[in-house]
Amino acid sequence: MAKPMAIEVYNPNGKYRVVSTKPMPGTRWINLLVDQGCRVEICHLKKTILSVEDIIDLIGNKCDGVIGQLTEDWGETLFSALSKAGGKAFSNMAVGYNNVDVEAANKYGIAVGNTPGVLTETTAELAASLSLAAARRIVEADGFMRAGLYEGWLPHLFVGNLLKGQTVGVIGAGRIGSAYARMMFVTAYGQFLKANGEQPVTWKRASSMEEVLREADLISLHPVLDKTTYHLVNKERLAMMKKEAILVNCSRGPVIDEVALVDHLRENPMFRVGLDVFEEEPFMKPGLADMKNAIVVPHIASASKWTREGMATLAALNVLGRIKGYPILSDPNRVDPFLNENSSPPNASPSIVNSKALGLPVSKL
C-alpha cells in the first residue's frame, strides 16, 4: 500500500483504536464509537477490494478492532496480525461470512461479528423487483428506448409473462425467503380476487425441491451457501424447469452453476433470470453479459439507505461490544433496540457468530 495511507480519523485521542477498511453509509456508527472513547480510522484507499497486505498495514502495531467487508479474505494471516496488535474483534458489514475463516479467529480468540436481521425486507424487495422486471422484460425494453429504436406500438413488442395465476416457488424459506413470499402472495390481493369470483392466492409446502423446479413458473432462491447448496441449481435441475420459467437469485452466487446457466439461457431464449450475485464476484462467467434474457445487478440487495446505515451501525456495535466486554445478544435478529436513533443502544454485541466457541456471555436484554 502506498504511504501515507488515505485515512480519515475521528477522535484522535481515543483510548481504543477501531479501523474500518471502507467508508460506510451514515454517521451514527462513527458517533457511537467516538462516544465510547474510540479513535475511529476510515480507509479511503481508492481500491475496490483491499488485499491482505493492505489490511495488515491498516491494522498496524495497535488495533482493538476492525470493521471489514465481505470482499476481504479474513483468514489465518489477518487474524494473527490483529491478535498481535491487541485486537479483540472483527465484524463483517454483512450477514454472510463466507470470506471469514472462523476457526482461525477462534484460534486467536477474536470475535467475529455479522449483521443479520437488518437485511431481510430490503433483500426480499430486490428479489421481488427482479421477478417483475424479468417477467415483463423491463430492462430489455429500457435499453430499446434508450437506443432510439422505438417507432411505435407493435403487437409482439417485448411480450413477457403475466404472473397472475402462476406458481411461485421459494427455495430456502428462511427470513428473506419468507419475506419474499409475503410480498408476492399479498393477502389483500388474494381477497380481491376471491371477491371477484376468481381463484385466490394459495400456498403449499412442496415435498421436494424437484417438485418446485418442475411446477413453478417463477422461482426465487434464498438458501444459505454451504457444501450442500453449492451448485444447487445445475444443468440437470435447470432442465427440470419450464421453458419459460423465471429464476431469481439474491442469495449467494455459487448456489447456481453459472456456466450451465449461460448454456441454458442460450438454448432457451424464453427462460429468464434476475441475478444479484455471481459465482466468482466481481466477475461473470463468459457469455452471461451477452444474454438479453438475463438481468444482472451488482450485489445491491441490501442497498437501501436505512439498511446499509443499519448494517454499519450493527458492525460497529459488534466491535465495540467485544472491546467493552459486553455480553452477546441471544437473538441476533432482534435489531430494533440497536437501530432506534432516539435512544442509546443496549450494552451488548448484536451478533457474534463464534460467541459459543469463545465462551462469551449471553444477554436476553
Q: How would you describe this structure to a colleague?
A:
The chain is an alpha/beta fold. Helix content is 35%, strand content 13%. It contains 14 helices and 13 strands. It has helices spanning 28-35, 52-59, 76-84, 102-107, 120-135, 138-146, 175-184, 187-195, 209-215, 235-240, 258-267, 305-324, 336-339, 355-358; strands spanning 7-10, 16-20, 38-43, 65-68, 89-92, 111-113, 168-171, 218-221, 246-249, 272-275, 294-296, 328-329, 362-363. The strands form three sheets. A six-stranded mixed β-sheet has the order 1-3-2-4-5-6. β5 (89-92), α4 and β6 form a beta-alpha-beta unit.
The SSE order reads EEHEHEHEHEHHEHHHEHEHEEHEHHE
Strand order of the largest sheet: 1-3-2-4-5-6
Q: How much helical structure, as a percent, in the residues?
A: 25-40%
Shape: elongated
Tally the helices: what do you get?
14
Q: What's the number of extended β-strand segments?
A: 13
The residue-averaged pLDDT reads 94
The end-to-end distance, rounded to whole angstroms, is 43 Å
The parts where pLDDT drops under 50 for at least 5 residues are none
Rg from C-alpha positions? 23 Å
The amount of beta strand, in percent, is: 5-15%
Q: Tell me about the largest β-sheet.
A: 6 strands, mixed
Protein name: Glycerate dehydrogenase
Family: Belongs to the D-isomer specific 2-hydroxyacid dehydrogenase family.
Keywords: Oxidoreductase
GO molecular function, one term: NAD binding
